[in-house]
Amino acid sequence: MTLVLRYAARSDRGLVRSSNQDSVYAGPRLLALADGMGGHAAGEVASKVVIASLAPLDDDEPGDDLLAQLREAVANGNAAIAELVSQDPDLDGMGTTLTAVLFAGNRLGLVHVGDSRAYLLRGGQFAQITRDDSFVNELLEQGRITPEEAAVHPQRSLLLKALTGHEVEPSLTVREARSGDRYLICSDGLSGMVSDETLAEAVQIPDPQQCADRMIELALKGGGTDNVTVIIADVVDVDFGEDAPIVGGAAGDGSDERHQGDSPAARARALTQPPPQPRPELPQPTEDPKAKRRKRFRWLAGALVVLVVLAAAAIATRYFVLSQYYVGEGADEEVVIYRGVPGSILGIDLHTYEQGSCPPNQVCTDKLRVSQLQEDARLAVQNGVKKDSLDDARKYIDDFLQLHKRLNNCAPAGGQTSPTPTNPVSPTTTPSAPAGSTAPSSANQPAGRDCSTPSSTAPTTGGGN
């Protein structure tokens, strides 16, 4: 019996995002999907780099140790991200999820980091085979929220693991491949928009390409608020399978988003497809002086319109920037509130100092310093924790960071030193703890800690930007 893959892959930037930060690769031996994160910090660069590191696995005959090959490729991709960040500090904060399958006949290796997902349809049973490395999933597994609450939780996009150039341990498993199996690999632009029940129904569509089209259509109908990427792969028993790789999303040339057919999904993709390439210009006849003057006038009028549009855009951008707040590191390592967004343009800061760690109009004898925080909270503040309002930023300092400060000063019973929690992913956005609940507990919390509140894991904002 010869088992091969029959596959299709699609990626769409959605109806809201201005760019596609997902990258996808589907080939005879390798299926890989990366959902970039980081927004201005070039999440699409991170996803492309990681996919490029895994792509050579599709050209080689898989050996006996599938997981060693996957682990090495992922480590190379993560190291490439670290090198890019070291060369360009403006890229600090970019990262990507990864879910990939390396196929070898009757076995396959699966590597996973983040909240992109892999599902398996076998014998009529449809189930998720990866675990979301997310803040909300940790709350769900601890029984602190219900599945219904998890589906609408405001922090459901926050990641605890991602490839950002920092050390991370991916999940690696080996699975048996059977004829008739169907795998669905997708970014959270699909799983976050479409219920598992609807996915279980749509995945039954026999043709992989039509099935992938249907998945894209469902995500767009659900709102299309994020990039959406899908791989559909069938394990079939035939002599020869497909051998033409599909490269899409940020790693491709946009052909996977262009109009194909007249299905509802194709028409939805056509709304956001790249513009067609311009046709070669034909030689123009010699213009008379009056025509040249008219042309010059039109050019000046057009330039004036462009200037007006740019001025309006600048005003709108300034309004947007000044309506944002974030918690960051100020002078003397103080935790402070800035108005605006992190970063600068042409040397001009996009933020201004708003408040210190102490509430205004109050005498402050003990300012909150970054060095007082646990490492996960310290990294979050150093990267900038975005908030929707000044009150949210104030509450973040008063509640969440003060909690980290207390935990950092408490010791285990018996005078033993508590272990340092594993460093999570450097975050781009960390929200305040939900009302009426405590921060999530560390996975390795030792017994006997002399604290009333469990330590928390600072989450990281995921794909989708």
Write a structural description.
It is built from eleven helices and 18 strands. It is α+β, with helices and mostly antiparallel strands and 465 residues long. The strands form four sheets. Strands 2, 3, 4, 5, 6, 10 and 13 form a seven-stranded antiparallel beta sheet that branches. β5 and β6 form a beta hairpin. α1 runs antiparallel to α2 and α7 packs across α8. The longest helix has 34 residues. About 17% of the residues have low confidence.
Share in helix = 25-40%
Shape: globular
Number of strand segments: 18
Question: Which stretches are low in confidence, meaning pLDDT under 50 for 5 or more residues running?
Answer: 259-269, 271-287, 411-462
Strand content: 15-25%
Provide the succession of SSEs.
Answer: EEEHHEEEEEHHEEEHHHEEHHEEEHEHE
Tell me the radius of gyration. Answer: 25 Å
Q: In whole angstroms, how far apart are the ends?
A: 44 Å
Number of helices: 11
InterPro entries: PP2C (IPR015655), PPM-type-like_dom_sf (IPR036457), PPM-type_phosphatase-like_dom (IPR001932)
Protein name: Protein phosphatase 2C domain-containing protein
Keywords: Membrane, Transmembrane, Transmembrane helix
Domain PPM-type phosphatase: 6-235
Strand-helix topology:
Blueprint (H helix, E strand, L loop, with lengths): L2 E10 L9 E5 L3 E8 L5 H12 L11 H22 L7 E2 L1 E7 L2 E7 L3 E6 L2 E4 L6 H7 L5 H5 L6 E2 L11 E6 L5 E5 L1 H4 L4 H7 L5 H14 L6 E10 L8 E4 L14 H7 L18 H34 L2 E5 L5 E11 L2 E8 L19 H9 L1 E3 L2 H20 L50 E2 L4
Antiparallel strand pairs: 1-12, 2-3, 2-13, 3-4, 3-5, 5-6, 6-10, 7-8, 7-11, 9-18, 11-12, 14-15, 14-17, 15-16
Helix pairs in contact: 1-2, 7-8
